[in-house]
Amino acid sequence: MFDSYLIKEDSLQNVVEDGKVAGFKFAVRIADYRGCYLSLHNGYYISVDDVEYPKEVQKFEINGKAPRDFEEIKKCVWEHWDYDDWGWVYVAKEGGLAPGKHHIGLQQSILAQYGYFPEHDEEWVKNPPIPGKGAGAGKSMFICYFDLDLQEGGK
Amino acid sequence: MGIKRGVSFYSYQQTQFFGKMFWKDMVLELHDNLKTDGIEIIDESTIPHYPFPPQEFIYDWNSYLARYDMKAVTKDVYLDVHQFRDHVMTHKEAAERLKYDIKLAADMGFQNIRCLCLVPIDVIEMCLETAEKYNVRIGKEIHAPLPISTVGKKQPTKGMAGALDIHMVDQIIDLAQRTGSKHVGLVPDFGIFQYRPSQVAIDYNKRHLNPQQIEEMEWLLENSINFEDGEDAAQDAYRAQFPNGTLNPMIVESMSLHKSSADPEDLRPIVPYILSMHGKFYQMTEIEGEPGHYEDKAINYADPIRILNEEGFQGYINSEYEGQRDQQDRGKEFLPDEVEEVRRHHEMLQRLFDATPNKGDL
Predict the structure, then answer these.
(1) Residue A4 has pLDDT above 90, yes or no
(2) Scanning A144, B102, B170, B328, which has the fewest C-beta atoms within 10 Å of its C-beta?
(3) Interface touch A4/B19, C-beta < 8 Å
(4) B158 and A CB contact within 8 Å
């Protein structure tokens, strides 16, 4: 769902921390027709120019709070990501991205469900799906690709 | 009186996504253009800061609906069993969530909540007392590929179809009869009368599958008419024809659709238990030779509506437009107009309502 519209145009930029470029970020929407309990948000498959950036180097910024990694997000069992809201995905990468155009692959993982599904319910508690591997992708059936220009700012 | 028209705001999800319409605009579209009053919502897309909306929103909702004399018919609620992440939600926890959603529905003036197919029957039973106390009815959705009557049906074992107990309608009617409760019933979705894949879904797959997979999909579209009934048969036939095939089983299931999962005739005995219905549709196209008249070529509306009229059903059918989802991989110039699709759907609904007398009015 919303395949071509999940990343906000003109939102890709480098992130500066303590005077150094520490990574990059872009703004996303939920790939569903409803929001979700934040705890269900399970990270992203992200590739930039064919380099993959796993969940462990990602953070998510929503609800006016500082970016949180997905171990923290997992504990937000009463917080909600509202359908109308943009969130920011942060990716740690020393030096950030080079100026110019970048080819980004994205698949969101949301463990949203329509009730009990015995085939994987217990498994997803023990071993949550790895974003981009198929399971737990909610309503984004395929990895979607975006060609985005790195914006000024953040540097 | 007759059958009533409503709209699930689900239909306008894309317009809301792009910030062009919010719930008040949707209320006005129903009131001013569709000339109707029935409202259905998805809690997690209409209610700000769900599950804890500000009181201001509740006041605003109730006064706005009162101002335009609108009816809050059904609120669709969910069950994400991984909310707590460290364990699968227990049935008792699921019931607590459902009770909470019932109270919120009552605060917003809703007559019904729609709970999902995969909400266990004991969870619903645990909530009946709350439903009665707040006078909100619990309707279980009957969604494709479920049947209404199980006569001659086999329980599928694979995929989503395998997770759906084909006896769901019987279980709800048993619960209603056993407890005598008037606060439990059914929300059938017109998707159970879909008899072929929608063109928008076929086109979406064509844009994303590789040439070999497209060939496999074309084979399913052409040959599924010869498959035995049931989703398992489709998976088996695909595997036999393409032992090394790489189509996702969900695509195999959806592209093999050649017969509706429910028979419209089976509606007759369940009419007293229907709280409201989902008018699922994918694409409204003009009927050849009938300018201004529209149809969905994948879903049978005429027979179910005739039968509902014959049985005197006078509840709401709420439009649930879903075809936009299969077109959002393309540029903005290709995005469908949700408002126009729903207007066409209402043209069809009213025309079919008026085509035969409603027994309740005789």
Answers:
(1) no
(2) B170
(3) no
(4) no
Taking CB atoms and an 8 Å cutoff, what residues of chain B touch A144?
329
CATH class entry, domain B4-195+260-361: alpha beta
- Rounded Cα distance between B330 and A4, Å, is 6
**Nearest residue, CB atoms, A116 vs list B48, B118, B330:** B118
For chain A, give every domain's residue range. Answer: 3-149
B110 lies within 8 A of chain A by CB = no
**pLDDT given at position A155:** 45
Provide the CATH number for the domain formed by A3-149 in this structure: 2.60.40
CATH 3.20.20.150 boundaries in chain B: 4-195+260-361
Return d(Cα A116, Cα B249) in angstroms, integer.
19
* Whether residue B220 has pLDDT greater than 80: yes
User: Exposed/middle/buried for B27, CB within 10 Å: 0-12, 13-18, 19+?
Assistant: buried
> What is the per-residue pLDDT across B161-189, written as a single tens digit (0 to 9) for each?
888 999 999 999 999 999 999 999 999 99
Contact B16 A83 (CB under 8 A): yes
Q: Check if A144 contacts B (Cβ < 8 Å).
A: yes
**Chain B residues near residue A34 by CB distance under 8 angstroms:** 42-45, 78
Complex-level ipTM: 0.95
Answer whether A74 sits within 8 Å of B85, measured CB to CB. Answer: yes
Beta strand pairing status for A101-110 and A87-92? unpaired
Q: Please give the pLDDT value at position B122.
A: 97
Length of chain A: 155
Of B170, B148, B187, B208, residue with least CA distance to B280: B187
pTM over 0.90: yes
The SS3 call for residue A44 is: strand
